[in-house]
Amino acid sequence: MPSTVVYKMLYDHDTATLRIIFVSGLIYDYKNVPEEVYQAMKNSGSKGTYLNKHIKGHYAYEKVG
């Protein structure tokens, strides 16, 4: 089921950066995210809920663009 908040997720294994592209068009890079956290989000039933509980406030981020 598509997320109503997260449009797309990209993960860079070399830098452990998780890029979140929101439905709104905003893009954020979350730094030093372990691959298992990315995989858990990818497999979660609600991407937005997972993002709010396990990523926001836990990893440094920067707005892209």
UniProtKB/TrEMBL annotation:
Top-level taxon of the source organism: Bacteria
Stretches assigned to the KTSC domain: 3-59
Identification of the protein by name? KTSC domain-containing protein
Native source organism of the sequence: Chitinophaga agri
Q: Which InterPro entries match?
A: KTSC_dom (IPR025309)
Q: Name one Pfam family in it.
A: KTSC
